Amino acid sequence: MRNRAAVFALTGPGLVFLGFSLLAPIALLVASSFRSGDAWTVAPYVSTLSKSVFRIAALRTLRVGLIVTAATAFLSYPTAYYVSKLPARRRAVLMSLALFPLMTTAVVRTFGWFVILSRQGILNRVLEAIGWVDRPVQFLYTEGAIVLGLTHLFFPLMLLSLISAMENIPPDVEEAARSLGARPLRAFARVVFPLSADGLVVGGTLVFTGCITAYTTPAILGGTRVLTLATLLQQRAMTLLDWETATVVAVVLLALATVVNLALRRLRVRGVS
Amino acid sequence: MRAFRKRVPCVLVVVGLLMMGWGLVLDAQEPPKPSQLVVSTWGFNTELLEENLAKAFEAETGIRVVFDFGDNSPRLVRLIANRDAPVVDVVTFAPNFAAQALSAGVLQPINTVNISNLADIVEWAQDPLGGHYGIGYTVQILKLAYRTDKIAPPVTSWRDFFRPELAGRITIPDLNTTYGPATLFSTAKAWGGSLDNLETGWQKLGELIESGALLTAYRRSSEAISLFEQDEIWLCPIPSFSWPSLAALNLPLAWVRPASDYWEGMVASLNTLSVVKGTPNAYWAEKFIDFWLSVETQTQMALDKVDAPANTKVVLPDDLRMSFGLDEDISTAVFYDPAFVVANLEEWLDRWNEMIAQ
Q: How many CA within 13 A on the CB side of residue B163?
């Protein structure tokens, strides 16, 4: 009884805050997406989902989110594995370095890519110098540019999530696998990877959610021709003051993030079992 | 004689009392001064706005001016959200957003009795929204900027956007920007269409997109300037407030009036000053507007390259007039009806998104 009271006293304020700041707004958002004027209706969904530009933006958003999540996981795993094996002091230094880009705003980092990927940028100059191209290539305003920018942006989040998970894997578990004849890659796949699945779920959720809701990077690197749901939402809300469509798009984004999180958790359960 | 001496002081007292009473009446016409006025406008040249507007107005009236900076749409959204208890007194908008603000009911008519400078304002800027809901305080001219070292022969027309050698080197304003609809209208007119028949414009813009000629449609003029700087584009329509920044890149650029605009006049746009509906400081808001329209303020803003003047009494050096696009005959300026744009914008935007989305 006393324990219960103590738990409630400690968690209560946080839960109340979460309720007001997270759950209530989400509930209001979902409810208002079924409103048109004073009527409860699915008309906003029918109107929005029937537009081909919505379907194009939705598929692109999902595709970019999955690619970036996979890319950050692929790039982060070796790095996280190496860092997690280091002595505590060196590990702390490298984790600080991994956090360092997060201290710069996404706008600045994205404009950095804008300059790098432009026709006068360093990427084109290197390609011309080594003879791979004989004239500058247009890298900007493509889906690839958005993927590159978002991968750079969210790499630290995946890396830190995986490092945190791998730090908690007892070192003798992997050693035991090897002593039983498992090669390093098999030991990683059958022991380290499943035990770090929590980190992949957290990192994957953070990266995917961040990608599908990102506005600045797709707007700067993708422009108006490579639409995502976030840029479409901005257009409908801020230009047309079309809050019905904007609300529907927001709910779709929320649903996508939830589905991917559930899918990752399911994969984690299967991996562990 | 004694009677006269008795009457003189009485007359003087009566006259004095009458004058005091008249003073009280005059003071009663002027409402109490607020401690501050809130002005919603764009966040460009903020130091010059503080200097030329806020500090100067405070020095004259004792009223502090506080700015609410932002783009058109978030500022309009805030006005609508606060419509029952407005926190802004004066607002500036591009014409499409002014028309949206008007239809949203967040503007109130200006009492032109309080605008002593109104008669000096160029005629088409005095009441651009109708009903005195706004006054134009600056004019923007839309012309074509291009790299003179990359394009030959020189650009003279909206039709030049279709030159094959310019493929991938062109940007135009996105349709949901201030000059997006003007680009559609001008393209239509350049190819034989009209405001009543925009299909030609849609068709030609579609060809521009499908051929790969269009790199992107820019949302902000700063984006177009960056694209010029990065050598991504060589040609785009750009308004006069952006030309000084573009010229400062020191690239070989020209900014020309397209030939097709000679048919019916030069594309121009006004930014408007309005009073927010329900403000308790309407009188002083109108005084601030009057201050902004004065020849002194308009001259200083022009000399500082902030805004082209709408006050006809402003005298500028020739090179400055050219940089504002005012070297052309401003009387030929064509202002597209913002109400027409707002009424059709949702349908146009849906069609535009279908065309431009890859």
A: 17
